Amino acid sequence: MKLALVTGGHRRLGAAIAAALARAGYSLAIHGSHDVELDPVLEEALRETGTRWHGFVADFADPAISPSLMAEVRAHFGALPTLLVNSAAMFGQDLIETVSADDLLRHYTVNCVAPVLLTRAFADMSGGGGDGRSIVNILDQRLAQPHGDQLAYTLSKQALAGFTQIAARELAPRGIRVNAVAPGLTIATPDYDAAKMQRLAGMMPLQALPQPEEIAQAVLYLADAASVTGQVIAVDRGAHLESYSRDFMHL
Fold first, then answer.
1. How many domains does the chain have?
2. Which comes out higher in pLDDT, residue 163 or 190?
3. Neighbours of 49 (CB within 10 A)
4. How many Å apart are CA 147 and CA 158, to the nearest integer?
5. Does 153 participate in catalysis according to the annotation?
6. Using CA atoms, how far apart are residues 136 and 168, in angstroms rounded to an integer?
7. Range of the domain at 204
8. Which of 26, 108, 153, 192 is catalytic?
9. Does 190 or 147 have the greater pLDDT score?
10. What one-character-per-residue DSSP string does 171-200 give?
């Protein structure tokens, strides 16, 4: 059984990734921080494919909860996931002038501590039989040329990027591959109207914004790419090649 645990997998980009995995034949452990109410795109994929799935609620703001999630998934499915996608994230608004210690710690706990502890649990439970198991961390194209907006978020994702390299090296002897995908702006929030999305698309080197399905396809590639570890794929229509002075919502 191919089984994927997708954190934050019930909505937005996580749901697009989970939907693609369902269509690729994975059973799904879908995590949500406070609920597992599914996005319509994921509901449709699960209905079409008849995918075996279960929802798990775990608030990563409490660092003690993260490691137990892996055990819950194994207990429910009777197997350890073959793929872990660390997609859940906290995203707040702060600048160097306003960021607090609490902002920094809360973002770090959700965006880095949880993936690290889930990775450790994933590796420990795999024992010596990790061949074919894979981890994909979701980063952000901004990390290539960071700006000052959402400082706590950016720093926590920088830490996760560094951990991706460390874990790839440390877990390779155990047959576990660790990679990452760095998405660009893809799913609009209420801060963006259609005109703004079109204008921002024109600011990308490839004159368009990436689609959620394209990011999901990169995750699928890394899940199956047996010779690839320690890599970051930017799926952003070239945005990582440019230096933007501020977050896209302010441009």
1. 1
2. 163
3. 17
4. 12
5. yes
6. 10
7. 3-250
8. 153
9. 147
10. HGGGTEEEEEEEE-S-S--TT--HHHHHHH
177 class by beta-carbon count within 10 Å (0-12 exposed, 13-18 middle, 19+ buried): buried
Q: What is the CATH number of the domain that holds 226?
A: 3.40.50.720
| Residue 3, beta-bridge partner list | 27
Range 22-34 average pLDDT: 98
Mean pLDDT of 164-189: 97
- Among 218, 231, 127, 103, residue whose Cα is nearest residue 177: 231
For range 206-232, the mean pLDDT: 98
Q: Per residue in 121-158, pLDDT tens? A: 999 998 766 678 999 999 999 999 999 999 999 999 99
The DSSP bridge pattern shows strands 27-32 and 133-138 to be: unpaired
- The structure tokens listed for 162 are 């560094």
Q: What is the pLDDT of residue 181?
A: 99
Question: Phi-psi bin for 127: left (phi > 0), alpha (psi -120 to 50), beta?
Answer: left
Say how far apart CA 194 and CA 45 lie, in whole Å: 26
What percent of the chain shows pLDDT beyond 70?
99
The SS3 of residue 85 is strand
Mean pLDDT value across the chain: 96
Under 8 Å between Cβ of 29 and 14: no
Cα–Cα dist 27/13, whole Å: 18
Residue 142 to residue 247: CA distance in whole angstroms: 9
Strand partners, 54: 29
Give CA–CA dist 147/106, Å, rounded.
Answer: 20
Q: Which of 127, 136, 131 is nearest to 167 (CA)?
A: 136
